[in-house]
Structure prediction request, 191 residues.
Amino acid sequence: MAIKPYMRSILIVAIAFLSVLPATLCIEDKCAACTAIAEELERGLLKEKPRNHLDMRHRLDSKGQREGKLIDYRASELRVVELLEDLCEKMQDYTLEKVDSSTKTWIKVNNWDLLKTNKQEARAHSKAISSFCGRLLEQTEDDFTELMKKGSVQVGDVSKVLCEDLSNYCNGKSSSNKTVGDENEDTDREL
Prediction:
């Protein structure tokens, strides 16, 4: 029995999809992935500009005086929302790089054209960490928000709080991640 041409193309697409599927379904080293997410979140904290308090005094009382709350921006939910808003989207700039035969690390790719590995596989990894980020935030967002509002999360603590305390993906492990493709930073290296 001969395979019809349209069935052959469907079969080829299905095989191609199934070859990339394992990379998107499973993150082997959840600690390293969580650490990469925490490092991106930390970049957001470092780029934060000082903001004024949030003025929630929009009503006037019977004497014409404004009433309501004045909220410190650093303790506001708005700050957390702004930090987490595009985080998982930014994780699509990350992929796995093979360091040696047994070690892989998450790297930030600023220029996908400089990446010398299989781009289709690299994109699959970027989608995998992005969806992992969504699951991680879904699992930890409420607790993380409360800790941020209390001021318990500082620059340098994000990985510990997110990956050890809240999600338990890293229990005393440490992981390093790199940035690739941006010649402006001294710590980056070119692929």
Summary: Residues 20-25, 182-191 have pLDDT under 50 and may be disordered.
